[in-house]
Every structure is written in structure tokens, then in C-alpha cells.
Amino acid sequence: MTLHQNEIRVDETVVRALLREQRPELADLPVSPAGAGTDNRMYRLGDELLVRLPRTPGNAEAVRKEQAWLPRLAPQLPCRIPELVYCGTPGDAFPLAWSVYRWIDGEVVGPGRVTDWPAFGADLAETVRRLHAVPLMGATREGELSWYRGGDLQACDGWVSRCFDERRAIEGLDLDIAQLHHLWQGALALPEPSGGQVWLHGDLKPTNLLVQHGRLHAVIDFGGLSVGFPDAEHAAVWDLPAAARRAYWEALDLDEATWLRARAWAIAVGVSGVSYYWRTYPEFVDECLSRLRAILEEKG
Fold it and tell me: In this structure, are residues 251 and 121 in contact, taking their beta carbons and an 8 Å threshold?
């Protein structure tokens, strides 16, 4: 499935050729698809490894960022994160940076896989708290560490409003776009965050959270890693049941303004995701619609 105009073709043959070029001792291990997101494709390599390749040249910048920072962040977090085994470089088989990681066993968060949603919300809050407390180690909100999430809501109003306009044009879309736009505009009037900038994962949606025995086990996909204000980090909790969301809020003791800004970020990401992937990635569109409906239900 191709999602972007400048996407680079990848399959098992490409992965094996790439391994022969750079890690020949791994090239004869079994290779099989292990999922794909909006920015990367993954292949399981043997029983213990994972090959991760960016879809586009722009996504390769995030790969290099992960290679530089994940080994420094991992010791300071309470759950597992991707463990880098090899930093791949552009080659004849594939023209971008790529990575080999240690395989992490676990299941993507979802119904029937979490045994205690309030406990899960509290565990996620603790992971976020610990990440935000990690010293910046000289990192600043510049270049690859300056993703739009973690910045100012006002700066995003132009493209977010265009996405709202595009969604209004879809016939039969069962979604109160006017109410969502009202909530977004209300957040624009809030004061800017007053705290300092911190490390941000940037995309803590359920597909980036793995559980074992019903509890949070690992956080994956740090392609959105950045430095910025923490409000957008909390946006993905609208992908979780209300009980997890409440426990998360209480565990971090978030004030109302932070919560409302986080909700606005959730709206922005959801509306833009529906807009961009409407015809190419229906599963991701469904995720975005579920998030937006959860916001409307909570508001109601």
C-alpha cells in the first residue's frame, strides 16, 4: 500500500539485498512483514530482530534522530523502548538510512488486551512523566527536534482550518465538524504553556504502545521525538477508554488549560489525518474518526 507520492518501494527482496550489502551475517535469517505505519515499514528478521525502513526521504530524518537519541533515553525510562542493534546507511538496495532493532514481544493496546484500564492510564502517565523529566542533554527545539507538535497551537491554525474545510465537503461523514471546530477555536484563545520545554515522544497512540500480561510493556516508534511544550503529548489519551484517560489526567495532575490544549492537539491530528489519508489508508482514518468521536462524546 502506497501512502505518499515520493514513497520508495520496499519488499522482502529489498530487505535481504540490503542486509547482504551491510550485514551479511544476518542476510540468511527469515524475513517477513511485521507491519507498517504512515512513516515506516517493518520486517521481522529471525526471532530476535526487526528491520525498520522509512517510506520517504523525509521520514529518513526521523530514523537518524532515533539512532542518535534512543540509546541515551532508554536507561531513564520505566518501560522498554526500541533497542538499536545496527544503524543502516544508504546503499544500492535502498537509498535512505534504516535501522535494525531488537524485537520486542507484546501486543498492540486494544480491547481484550488490557486487564485494568485505570492502571494502564497511570502506567502511561508515569512513562510520560519520566520522559519529560529526562535532561535535554544539550538538545534544543531546532531542526529535526522541532516537530510541530510541541509548539504553538496558533501557528497551526491555517492548515488545521483548511482540513476542517475539506472534511465539511465529504458527504455522509457522521461527525459534528462544527462542534470540533468550535473546540479548536476555543483552545486558540487559551494562554500559551508556561512551563519549560521537555522531551516528547510525539505520537503515543495505541499502535505505538505494547502490552504484556495486560499491562504497559513498551513504547515504540519515536519518529516524532522532539523537544517542546508537553501539551500535545497528552493528546493521544482520547484514543483510550475514558477510565484510562481519567487515571492519566489524575496521575499527572494536569490543569484544565493544559487538558484543553491537549484536546485541541487531538482534534488537529485527527482532522488532518482524516484529510490526508481519506483515500489511501482507511484503517488510519478509522483511528482518527474514533478519536474525534471520543472527544465529542466526552464534551457531550
Answer: yes
Where are the domains positioned within the chain? 12-102, 107-299
The string of pLDDT tens digits covering residues 210-231 is 999 999 999 999 999 999 999 9
- Three-state DSSP at 89 gives coil
Please count the other Cβ atoms lying within 10 Å of the Cβ belonging to residue 62. 22
Q: What are phi and psi of 120, to 5 degrees?
A: -65, -45
Q: Indicate the CATH number for domain 12-102.
A: 3.30.200.20
Q: Return phi, psi of residue 101, to 5°.
A: -120, 160
Nearest CA to 292 out of 264, 259, 267 is that of: 267
pLDDT tens column, 162-207: 999 887 877 667 889 999 999 999 999 999 888 899 999 999 999 9
Fill in the DSSP letter of residue 29. Answer: S
> Could you tell me which residues come within 8 angstroms of residue 253 by beta carbon, excluding any fewer than 6 positions away?
none
* Closest by CA position to 62, among listed 129, 1, 145, 124: 145
φ, ψ for residue 12 (rounded to 5)? -60, -35
Using left for φ > 0, alpha for ψ between -120 and 50, and beta otherwise, residue 143 falls in: left
The string of DSSP letters for 52-121 reads EEESSHHHHHHHHHHHHHHHHHGGGSSSB---EEEEE---SS-SS-EEEEE----EES-TTT-S-HHHHH
Nearest alpha carbon to residue 22 among 96, 103, 91, 73: 91
Judge whether 74 and 122 are in contact, CB under 8 Å. Answer: no
CATH architecture of 107-299: Alpha-Beta Complex (3.90)
Mean pLDDT value across residues 88-109: 96
φ/ψ bin of 138: left (φ > 0), alpha (ψ from -120 to 50), beta (otherwise):
left
